[in-house]
Records
---
Amino acid sequence: MGVQGKSCGPCTMCCKSLVIDHFKKDAGILCTHCKLQAGCQIYETRPQICRDFECDWLMERTIPQTLRPDKVGTILMEDDETDQYQAVVDPSTPLAWRNPLMFKFLVSKAKEGKTVIAKSGLKSWRIYASGEWAPWSD
Ligand code: SF4
Ligand code: SF4
């Protein structure tokens, strides 16, 4: 459960679009335990990695409902290892992060001084405070 007023609802995007090593699941493949728009079918016994994951949309009160991941095809997350602010999309819609609402939000994050990276599978792009964006490699 996220901050007050927010819940995953029908969103199951992280169960499809993220790599989950525990299940040897690649990005873009729906977890076999996930029922679309109904959620996890093994909720009580789901692995720790799933228990621990909360996207930034869920946790940040200030991010509007309109940016719920399934609505814009983009999962927002802080990556502690790289210090990046990431916008992860499903490989089937690699430019979903350019949705105008989402793109405006990502530029605002860049203006805050964050290193904003959009990721689709192995492809990455950096979004700059100027509103420009370009392919990126770590
Ligand atoms: S991407 Fe976020 S809102 Fe969607 S199911 Fe995962 S944690 Fe919930
Ligand atoms: S086990 Fe459940 S929470 Fe974890 S990825 Fe699969 S459907 Fe999602």
---
Amino acid sequence: MPTLSSSALIAELEASGLLGRGGAGFPVGRKWRAVAERAGGGAVVLANGAEGEPLSLKDRSLMAARPHLVIDGALLAARAVGANDIIFYVGSEHRTAEAALRRALAERPGDVRGRARIVAAPAGYVAGEESAAVHYVNAGDARPTTTPPRPFERGVGGRPTLVQNVESLALAALIARRGHAWYQGLGHGRARGIGLLTVSGAVNHAGVHEVELGSTLSDAAAAAGGLNGDVGAVLLGGYFGGWADLHEQWGLPLDAPSMRARGLALGCGVVHFLPSDTCGVEATSRVMTYLASQSARQCGPCVFGLSAIAGATQRLAAQSPQPGDLDRLVRWSGQVTGRGACHHPDGAAALMNSALQVFADDFAGHQHRRCLTIAEPARVAVA
Ligand SMILES: Cc1cc2nc3c(=O)[nH]c(=O)nc-3n(C[C@H](O)[C@H](O)[C@H](O)COP(=O)(O)O)c2cc1C
Ligand code: SF4
């Protein structure tokens, strides 16, 4: 395919329907257009490879295995939005990925090397949030900032900044090469395109798997070598996603719009199968404790709300609840949503709400100091 002009490239991405893979599923072409319209040639591209989600491996695996594809995507984005500077924001713990990117950049011509740099993102869940990433590059502080202005309006060095997940950039590079019709030709049902999943838990081959979007949950299990035991629930979309009942969702199409319609989220592509002999209250307590520990401690509802929610789930998990803990959990989860400078409390509350639904009987049992999983494990096998 001949080199596309910037506007033709953005139009190609819009026609492809590519959605961002960092979690929110925002249309990639629309974001590039918004930055291009503001940039006047002075924009910045921040390729987000922080990958702070504990259950996700896809971004570090992609950067390690296909660093040139990620760089191609970032260069195309820079051309399309009018950016001179490219920042690869890579989790400081993702050493293999960082080394691969560094080697690949060294193989590029001097003008590319001169415009691109790698910034090590500090460990932690919130460091990958877009305003936190910009704040870290600007001031060495990876805490989110109040928005607006959003990074696409005023970001790195006060300039319009395109913050784009590294998988989104790699897919943009493939679409630029092969055209939007190629991407639209992939996928099942109404879903279009491909995506990376990190599949873990009760499967035979945990790891990163590329699937056509619209593949079902059962396809994801098959791609990971099949389930290796009885499974009752699955965590979809990572710690910012939610729990789902496996038997209800076994045929669920994995695709952001289809999942949103069912109140679920593809997020960053995490699929974690929870073995039936693991208590859902216990598993949720671990996730909530982690998320509370990751608050950037700037907004009251996030700091106090998440720690209160984590405390109640811990007491319930330990079968030593205070009277009314379960009722308070329900109330608090509704109260923290939309109350932080960033979406951290929203994601945590969504996870908690999903747990209260999927593990409703288990939570009720724990409020009465009885664990149903240990007392009478569910032994329903998935075909
Ligand atoms: C608490 C929090 C943590 C996040 N961490 C990441 C991350 O590690 N990597 C990432 O690409 N996006 C992360 N995001 C999403 C980014 O804010 C942003 O939406 C994304 O990088 C944009 O890229 P995309 O449009 O290609 O998805 C996070 C968001 C939140 C609220
Ligand atoms: S909502 Fe939480 S994580 Fe987000 S900025 Fe406020 S304190 Fe930090």
